[in-house]
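// run 5 | inverse folding | seed 20
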């Protein structure tokens, strides 16, 4: 009965510890939410741990008080067992299954979203018309996000990408016809609202799916600006270099 007695407290502490592990002691939280939410997650984790410790202390005190005034009759179970049922003040035993997700998050944090999530989503492009974009910084190559390159390639009437060498980083996804893409997921708040941005890469062999790469090359114009024929944008690669996954794997909208 002791384990069931402290079940809710253990669940609270495990959940709070898991949240603190991915926020206070590492950058793993960036796999799930934006950096600005970190302080709120830390406060939530600390609150859950304190609540769990307080709950355990109160339960211990309550059972000690009950034990002092309770005389257990021969042939009868304790205060948590009545008529053979497996529930009592601490709740049903099945509630212990709720600890599994908390333990999993504590010991094996899930990875960031990757090619599976990108492949399940139909192409979603920002609802914007063709127009001019601000000038790109001087010098080559110019660093762009996958989403920035895509927007300029599809909607920029000023053709600011023309004649420029660009460099972008993302993970590899593959198409059904042998094409491959450098891909990033864009988030507004957390991984749950992620959408996909991708650029077709030509001129180099495809790395394995989900490999993170930095690609350098030049824009390959195709299709009419703002039309479906211009999607996805194309990059003629001069260099494809494998890199480590960044601490923050998502681009911001």
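// decoded
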């Amino acid at each position: 009965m002791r384990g069931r007695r402290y079940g809710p407290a253990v669940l609270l502490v495990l959940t709070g510890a898991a949240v603190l592990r991915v926020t206070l002691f590492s950058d793993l939280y960036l796999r799930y939410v934006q950096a600005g939410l970190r302080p709120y997650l830390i406060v939530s984790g600390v609150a859950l741990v304190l609540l769990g410790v307080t709950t355990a202390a109160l339960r211990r005190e309550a059972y000690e008080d009950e034990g002092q005034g309770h005389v257990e009759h021969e042939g009868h179970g304790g205060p948590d067992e009545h008529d053979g049922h497996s529930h009592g003040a601490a709740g049903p035993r099945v509630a212990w299954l709720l600890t599994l997700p908390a333990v999993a998050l504590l010991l094996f944090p899930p990875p960031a979203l990757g090619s599976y999530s990108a492949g399940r989503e139909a192409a979603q492009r920002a609802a914007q018309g063709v127009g001019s974009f601000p000038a790109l910084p001087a010098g080559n190559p110019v660093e762009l996000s996958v989403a920035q390159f895509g927007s300029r390639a599809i909607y920029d009437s000023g053709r600011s990408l023309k004649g420029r060498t660009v460099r972008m980083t993302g993970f590899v996804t593959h198409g059904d016809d042998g094409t491959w893409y450098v891909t990033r997921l864009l988030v507004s708040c957390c991984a749950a609202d992620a959408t996909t941005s991708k650029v077709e890469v030509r001129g180099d062999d495809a790395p394995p799916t989900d490999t993170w790469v930095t690609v350098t090359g030049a824009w390959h114009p195709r299709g009419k600006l703002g039309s479906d024929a211009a999607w996805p944008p194309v990059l003629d690669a001069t260099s494809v270099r494998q890199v480590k996954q960044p601490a923050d794997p998502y681009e911001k909208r």
